[in-house]
Design brief:
CATH architecture: 3-Layer(aba) Sandwich
CATH class: Alpha Beta
Strand content: 15-25%
Number of strands: 5
Oligomer: single chain
Order of helices and strands: HHEHHEHEEHE
Bound molecules: flavin mononucleotide
Structural class: alpha+beta
Radius of gyration: 16 Å
Shape: globular
Largest sheet: 5 strands, antiparallel
Amino acid sequence: MLELIKKRRSIRKYTADPISESQIKALLEAAMAAPSADDARPWEIIVVRRADLREELSRVHPWAAMCRSAPVVFVILGDPRRSAHWIEDCSALTENLLLAVTGLDLGAVWVAVYPQSTDEERVRRLLGVPDHLRVLCLVPVGHPAETKPAHTKFDERKVHYETF
Ligand SMILES: Cc1cc2nc3c(=O)[nH]c(=O)nc-3n(C[C@H](O)[C@H](O)[C@H](O)COP(=O)(O)O)c2cc1C
């Protein structure tokens, strides 16, 4: 597990190989195993495989282009009515998803939507997201067409023992 965490990198290039239904199910299960305040689980996930929708998602902003070539994009939604901690909970879910992707030897990257309200509105209109839900991020997933070394980013200067 410790090696897997260090192995996770943002992968932005994918082969044309598809992601299977069983892989999608495994990723969803891992994602939803995330911790959640009061166990409220204020998340919803849209699984986007349609090429026309992925093309539109890739245009949400200049750093979302990977949605075009990834065979599947997970759209992470949160419900502020169900929890004041929706951002933390959905972020934990997203990290679980990214780690599970790494564990299946797939590649993915966190693509921000929140807090840009114009980007959020584009995704909302495109995918018919109900008004009460917020769009946290997009996670394009595919078979990696690039490799990156594992890293830890460990920085001892950021660690403070007992008091700051
Ligand atoms: C909240 C958040 C938003 C991000 N948004 C984007 C994005 O819109 N597009 C992108 O290509 N990468 C995005 N990233 C990925 C970061 O650029 C990446 O994690 C960082 O460069 C470190 O690289 P690593 O993930 O390989 O460790 C985002 C990451 C986080 C946590």
